[in-house]
Specification:
Length: 202
């Protein structure tokens, strides 16, 4: 396992993974030999890529598929992974590849990843992925997609805020009713103290 923050993150992801993920065997349609998982040349896409790989995977082959991006956290969830073969895939170099670029930047060996080229968008076609900056990848995302994503997030937050405010208002209203009812009951049940008679004092 790696040292430093990346190693700690990988270990944390391993601990937090659900039992089914930890106990994952060789995922279909891949072939496994020891700690090597070969999913190369199987026509895999982002949607059909296995959701989990054995946690003891040290080498992963994804060469020759139809991958344009990788699911977030897929490689970070493999704490002892040493090498990933990613060539011959039509990578779309936009903001969705920022996590992959960050993972590649943290690898001590770079030879396996020197020839990873972008297939899209047109502005970055044939550029080498490891040499692209994070700003270039983020700028490649269409403003419309980013705006819609931001708008959806803001709408969700607004809805949660309104729900929170509504629940708080109902709670305050309920508390006021309870206080008024308690005060009314207290006024009805309080014993009336009889005033002493004027002639009782001697």
């Amino acid at each position: 396992m790696g040292s430093g923050p990346r190693g700690a993150l990988s270990f944390l992801l391993l601990l937090l993974a659900p039992p089914s993920r930890l106990a994952a065997g060789c995922p279909a349609p891949c072939h496994c030999a020891g700690t090597l998982v070969d999913c190369g040349r199987r026509g895999l896409t982002w949607a059909s890529l296995p959701a989990a790989f054995p946690p003891d995977t040290t080498e992963l082959v994804l060469t020759g598929n139809n991958l344009t991006a990788l699911p977030l956290g897929l490689l970070d969830a493999l704490p002892v992974l040493r090498a990933v073969h990613l060539g011959a895939n039509p990578w779309r170099c936009d903001c969705r590849l920022v996590p992959l670029r960050a993972w590649l930047a943290g690898r001590p060996e770079r030879a396996l990843y020197r020839n990873l080229r972008c297939a899209a968008p047109p502005a970055l076609r044939d550029r080498l992925l490891p040499y692209l900056t994070e700003q270039e990848l983020r700028a490649a995302c269409s403003p419309g997609a980013l705006c819609w994503g931001t708008l959806a997030t803001q709408l969700v937050l607004l809805g949660l805020g309104l729900l929170h405010a509504l629940l708080l208002a109902l709670l305050l209203r309920r508390l006021r009713r309870l206080r008024a009812r308690a005060a009314h009951r207290l006024s009805l049940t309080a014993p009336l103290v009889a005033e002493p008679a004027e002639g009782s004092e001697s």
